[in-house]
């Protein structure tokens, strides 16, 4: 009797592996997949910034990890990412909604919506960003204003070592406030401090161990105390502030030309009142607002933090930026985003900062909406798709010195700026960053204002600031201090 049972079990196990072997034949390669638990064990407990790139070296530019029965497909390097994002743009356009994201976002807004809702909200978002005049005089004026405030705050340190992280985060957040609400907040404002805390708390929760626990056991975690409670409450607080602002805008709606994101949205709601397919409503608006804070604050703020850190570490490069800015912009008060064209070296440095210390680790997870054949491999409907943008920015077949901070990546022999096809920090295809233009404008304007006003130096006794990032959803610099020494030549 026992003999029969053992034989039967052996047969079943063999069948399991054979079936997996047959069906796995055309899946992309990856680490050994075990029954039930899959192959995620291979990553270990701690994700390292180069984990993905190492796996690609071993398994190729398209590989799969198994989250139990769920394939997690990573596209790595320029060729594979480009093919995935451009040639399979539609099949890979859906966002993966985990239990936590479902709880918080309800599938509304832009970043975490899919299908009809996403198409409508996104289309509106794209047109509205354009109408708000980003890159033209309108919004640029407010960004300049914010940059001047930041210069003043830096000046208060009087050249002594200070940590620029919070002032930068506040200024960048105020740019989003200007875009969405039509006004900024004084940094001491209680409501603003609370909003910043909630946005920041939510961002640090993403990709933490606590989030993984929630995704694995949502039904249990819901009833337990822990960081997820705070993250959910924080998200709810951001939404209720958004709702308050919407109410205030409704009171004055129609009294003037639309000036901010909420104004334009309320007009759109009116226009499509009688359209049964319209997804324009106040709840979607509140979620769109939350999305702009989530996508548009930490990203640009971290880029600027890395910028100052790298320039303090590379005084030779900083000096060249200073010289170019002095030559071209002089001490004249006004300059515009368009002036970037006259500053090829500065522009190259900004691009190189975004390439060399890219701030997103996995990019936004997607989910395949149909079976796809790509590079001879089979990717089933429902697979999680990761386009590893960081691997594109470090791709050794596209960059001369990928591991080195080298602005020459974006300059020709005569010092002219050159665009590079593998520069894809904003992604590509249907889900390409909605705030790309805003991000480019604000990073340039903040950067140029700060460098016109200060020389950034390492504090006394410090040889170099640490470039090894803190790994979360984003790659953030470790907290650091530097000195912003006023330059008198340009005042
Ligand atoms: C340095 C700054 C920034 C970087 C590197 C960046 C990068 C990205 C990337 C790679 C994506 C695509 C994610 C995917 O493929 O699924 C994305 C999406 C998005 N970004 Fe940005 N971003 C930046 C700044 C901003 C700003 C300032 C805003 C808004 C005002 C913004 C709004 C968005 C939105 C709404 C999406 C979602 C689009 C969608 O799902 O359809 N981003 N961003
Ligand atoms: C991807 O699309 C481009 C442009 O449409 C095309 O030239 C290229 O051959 C496609 N690549 C693959 C592998 O299908
Ligand atoms: C609404 O959507 C349905 C189904 O997608 C479509 O058949 C119909 O034409 C749409 N109506 C309007 C007014 O756009």
Notes on the protein architecture:
This protein has a five-stranded mixed sheet with strand order 1-2-7-4-3. It has a domain at 113-359 and 408-490: Orthogonal Bundle (Cytochrome p450). The protein contains 18 helices and eleven strands. With 491 residues, it is α+β, with helices and mostly antiparallel strands. The chain is 51% helix and 8% strand. The protein has helices at residues 2-24, 51-59, 77-87, 99-105, 115-131, 137-155, 165-181, 190-205, 209-216, 218-221, 227-252, 261-271, 282-296, 298-313, 315-329, 344-356, 389-393, 436-453, and strands spanning 62-67, 70-76, 94-95, 366-367, 372-374, 377-379, 384-388, 454-457, 470-471, 475-476, 483-486. The radius of gyration is 24 Å and the shape is globular. Helix 6 packs parallel to helix 18, helix 8 (190-205) packs across helix 11 and helix 11 crosses helix 13. The structure holds protoporphyrin IX containing FE and 2-acetamido-2-deoxy-beta-D-glucopyranose (2 copies). One 2-acetamido-2-deoxy-beta-D-glucopyranose binds at residues 275, 277.
In short:
This protein has a domain at 113-359 and 408-490: Cytochrome P450 (Cytochrome p450), CATH 1.10.630.10.
Estimated helix fraction: 40-55%
Q: How are the strands of the largest sheet arranged?
A: 1-2-7-4-3
Supply Rg: 24 Å
Strand percentage lies at 5-15%
Quickly list its features:
single chain, alpha+beta, Cytochrome p450, globular, binds 2-acetamido-2-deoxy-beta-D-glucopyranose
């Amino acid at each position: 009797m026992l003999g029969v049972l053992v034989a039967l079990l052996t047969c079943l196990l063999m069948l399991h592996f054979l079936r997996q072997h047959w069906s796995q034949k055309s899946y992309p390669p990856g680490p050994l997949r075990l029954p039930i638990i899959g192959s995620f064990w291979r990553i270990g407990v701690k994700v390292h910034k180069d984990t993905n790139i190492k796996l690609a070296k071993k398994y190729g530019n398209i590989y799969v990890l198994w989250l139990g029965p769920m394939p997690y497909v990573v596209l790595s390097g320029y060729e594979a990412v480009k093919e995935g994002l451009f040639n399979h743009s539609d099949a890979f356009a859906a966002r993966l909604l985990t239990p936590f994201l479902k709880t918080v976002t309800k599938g509304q807004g832009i970043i975490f919506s899919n299908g009809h809702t996403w198409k409508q909200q996104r289309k509106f978002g794209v047109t509205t960003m354009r109408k708000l005049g980003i890159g033209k005089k309108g919004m640029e004026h407010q960004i300049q204003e914010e940059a001047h405030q930041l210069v003043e705050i830096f000046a208060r340190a009087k050249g002594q070592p200070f940590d620029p992280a919070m002032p930068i985060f506040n200024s960048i957040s105020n740019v989003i406030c200007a875009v969405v609400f039509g006004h900024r907040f004084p940094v001491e404002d209680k409501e603003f401090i609370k909003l910043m805390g909630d946005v920041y708390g939510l961002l640090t929760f993403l990709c933490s161990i606590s989030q993984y626990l929630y995704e694995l056991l949502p039904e249990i975690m819901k009833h337990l105390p822990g960081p997820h409670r705070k993250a959910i409450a924080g998200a709810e607080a951001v939404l209720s502030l958004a709702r308050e602002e919407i109410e205030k805008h409704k009171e004055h709606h129609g009294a003037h030309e639309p000036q901010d994101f909420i104004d334009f949205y309320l007009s759109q709601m009116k226009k499509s009142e009688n359209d049964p397919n319209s997804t324009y409503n106040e709840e979607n608006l509140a979620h769109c607002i939350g999305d702009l804070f989530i996508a548009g604050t930490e990203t640009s703020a971290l880029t600027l933090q890395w910028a100052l850190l790298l320039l303090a570490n590379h005084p030779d490069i900083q000096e060249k930026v200073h010289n170019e800015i002095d030559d071209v912009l002089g001490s004249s008060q006004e300059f515009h985003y368009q002036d970037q064209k006259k500053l090829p070296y500065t522009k190259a440095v900004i691009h190189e900062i975004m390439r060399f210390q890219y701030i997103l680790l996995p990019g936004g997870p997607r989910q395949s909406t149909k079976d796809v054949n790509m590079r001879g491999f089979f990717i089933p409907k429902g697979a999680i798709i990761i386009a590893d943008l960081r691997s594109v920015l470090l791709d050794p077949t596209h960059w001369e010195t990928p591991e080195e901070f080298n602005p020459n990546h974006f300059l020709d022999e005569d010092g002219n700026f050159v665009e590079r096809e593998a520069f894809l920090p904003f992604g590509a295809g249907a889900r390409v960053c909605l705030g790309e233009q805003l991000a480019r404008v604000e990073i340039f304007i903040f950067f140029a204002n700060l460098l016109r006003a200060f020389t950034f130096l390492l504090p006394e006794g410090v040889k170099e600031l640490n470039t090894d990032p803190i790994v979360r959803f984003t790659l953030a610099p470790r907290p650091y201090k530097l000195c912003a020494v006023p330059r008198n030549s340009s005042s």
